[in-house]
Design brief:
By secondary structure, the protein is an alpha/beta fold.
C-alpha cells in the first residue's frame, strides 16, 4: 500500500501551554496551513492536573488555576480555527521534517512539514535514575503521578508521606496531601538549597509546619509488599551520606520530586543538537535548532519555573517559525553565548544578529549554579563589558533573566557573548 503524504506548512508537536502558544502566535502571524498533534486525549498538558492557583500572574495579571490558564489558550486556538488532533502519538521525526503519527480515529498518518515546532514538554526523573538502595515495595510515586491520582482520579496514594526532592511539584504536593488529610513528615533535599520557587517553600511547607531537610537524602527504603519506612541521612559537601546521621521515618508513601527531563526522543531522531547542561535543544534567539526549519520551545527546550514564561517563549518561537516560512531572511552574524562563572544553561545558545538595523531586544534565561546574594549579572563580549547589573538574590530554584538591548547586540557583531555572575560590578 502506497504511503499517503499530508503536506502542511507548520506542524507543532504537543498541545500543552507551549504548543498552544506557538500555534496561536503562528496563526496570528498569517500561517494558515498548520496542525497540532497531541498525545493525550485532552489539550492543556500538565496544567490540567495543577488545580492550585498562582498561574497567569505575569501574563494575565491575575491568579488562575492550571485548568483555567489552559482554557484561555484552548479557547483562543478554537476561535482561530487551529486544527488540534488529540489522542495522536508522534512515532518519528526525520531531519527533513517528515512526521509519522498514529491515532485511533485516523490510523497511521505521515506529514511532510515545511517547519516543525517541538513542544513535547518534559517528564519526571524516576527512581531508577537515583540508585537508592532498598526494596521495591508499592507506595513509591513520582510527585506528578501522585498529583494526577489525587486531583484527577480522586485517589489518595497514602497517609504518612516523605517527599524526596524540593522541586515545585513536590512542594505543592506536600500541601495538597496535607489538605487531603495525610501527614507529610518531611521534605528531604540533597542540595543545601531548595530547587523550587521560594513562594512555594513558604506557602506549601512553612505554612503547614512541614520540615525541609536540606543537605539530606534517602539512603534506604524499607518494606516488602508496601512501603513501611525510609532512612534519611545528612550528606556532606561531596553529597555522600555522612555515617551515623541516619534517621528512620515510618511512612507508607514516598514521593519523588527529583527533577524534570525534556522529552528528547523525537529531537534526537531528527539529529537535533542537545545541550548537556539544559538537556534540551541548542537553539538560536529565534528558537531554531541546528536542523533548519525545526524549532523548540517550552519545557522540551529547558525546564521553566512559570508557565507564563513558557507561553511567552513559545509565542516568540511561533512567530519565528512564521517568519521562516515566509522567507526573505536578511543577512545576519551568528554569535555564540557561553556560560561564565556561576551560570548554568543560558538559553538561547546562539544569537543571529541582523547585519542591518536591530529593532528588538533579546532576553536570555539561565540558572545560577548556587545561591548568590547582592551579586552582579554581567554580560561581556571578548572586547568589553556590555552590562553589569546588581541582583539582590539569585538561586538555582528560580530562572534568572538578562536583556540584550539593540545597542548591545550591535556591539556583539563579530564577537561572542559570555554571561557570568560576579561579586563586584564589572566595567
Amino acid at each position: 500500500m502506497s504511503e499517503t503524504m499530508i503536506h502542511v506548512d507548520l506542524l507543532i508537536i504537543g498541545a500543552g501551554p507551549a504548543g498552544l502558544a506557538a500555534a496561536i502566535a503562528a496563526k496570528r502571524a498569517g500561517i494558515m496551513d498548520l496542525v497540532v498533534l497531541e498525545r493525550e486525549d485532552t489539550q492543556g498538558g500538565i496544567l490540567n492536573q495543577c488545580i492550585h492557583n498562582g498561574f497567569g500572574l505575569h501574563r494575565f495579571k491575575e491568579e488562575l488555576t492550571g485548568p483555567e490558564y489552559a482554557l484561555r489558550d484552548i479557547k483562543e486556538a478554537r476561535d482561530l480555527n487551529i486544527p488540534i488532533y488529540t489522542g495522536t502519538t508522534v512515532l518519528s521525526l526525520t531531519r527533513d521534517r517528515k512526521v509519522t503519527a498514529v491515532s485511533r480515529e485516523r490510523g497511521l498518518e505521515v506529514y511532510q512539514a515545511r517547519a516543525v515546532i517541538l513542544a513535547m514538554g518534559c517528564r519526571e526523573r524516576p527512581r531508577g535514575a537515583l540508585a537508592i538502595p532498598g526494596t521495591r515495595p508499592a507506595g513509591i510515586f513520582s510527585a506528578g503521578t501522585a498529583q494526577k491520582l489525587v486531583n484527577m482520579e480522586g485517589l489518595m496514594p497514602g497517609k504518612r508521606v516523605v517527599i524526596l526532592g524540593s522541586g515545585d511539584i513536590g512542594l505543592i504536593m506536600a500541601r495538597r496531601m496535607t489538605l487531603q488529610g495525610a501527614k507529610v513528615l518531611a521534605c528531604v533535599e540533597l542540595m543545601p538549597y531548595s530547587s523550587g520557587l521560594n513562594r512555594n517553600i513558604v506557602q506549601c511547607l512553612h505554612d503547614y509546619d512541614i520540615p525541609l531537610l536540606l543537605s539530606h537524602t534517602v539512603v534506604d527504603i524499607h518494606g516488602q509488599g508496601r512501603l513501611t519506612g525510609v532512612t534519611v541521612a545528612q550528606v556532606g559537601e561531596d553529597r555522600k551520606p555522612i555515617p551515623g546521621t541516619g534517621k528512620h521515618f515510618d511512612c507508607d508513601t514516598l514521593l519523588l520530586s527529583v527533577g524534570l527531563i525534556p522529552e528528547n526522543e523525537l529531537s534526537q531522531q531528527a539529529r537535533v543538537r542537545i545541550s548537556p547542561v539544559t538537556q534540551g535543544a541548542v537553539v538560536t534567539d529565534s528558537f531554531e535548532t541546528n536542523v533548519p526549519g525545526i524549532f523548540a520551545c517550552g519545557n522540551v527546550l529547558h525546564v521553566h519555573d512559570l508557565v507564563d514564561y513558557v507561553s511567552r517563549e513559545s509565542m516568540l518561537a511561533g512567530a519565528a517559525a512564521a517568519r521562516y516560512l515566509k522567507g526573505g531572511r536578511p543577512p545576519f552574524t551568528r554569535v555564540s553565548v557561553k556560560d561564565g562563572q556561576g551560570v548554568r544553561g543560558a538559553v538561547p545558545q546562539k544569537l543571529d544578529i541582523p547585519n542591518d538595523a536591530i529593532t528588538e531586544p533579546v532576553d536570555l534565561m539561565f540558572r545560577p549554579d548556587r545561591v548568590y546574594q547582592n551579586h552582579y549579572v554581567t554580560l561581556r563580549s571578548k572586547e568589553e563589558v556590555l552590562s553589569s547589573q546588581k541582583r539582590m538574590i539569585l538561586t538555582p530554584g528560580e530562572m534568572a533573566e538578562a536583556r540584550l538591548t539593540p545597542d548591545m547586540l550591535a556591539r556583539l557583531r563579530g564577537s561572542e557573548l559570555t554571561i557570568e555572575i560576579n561579586q563586584e560590578k564589572q566595567s
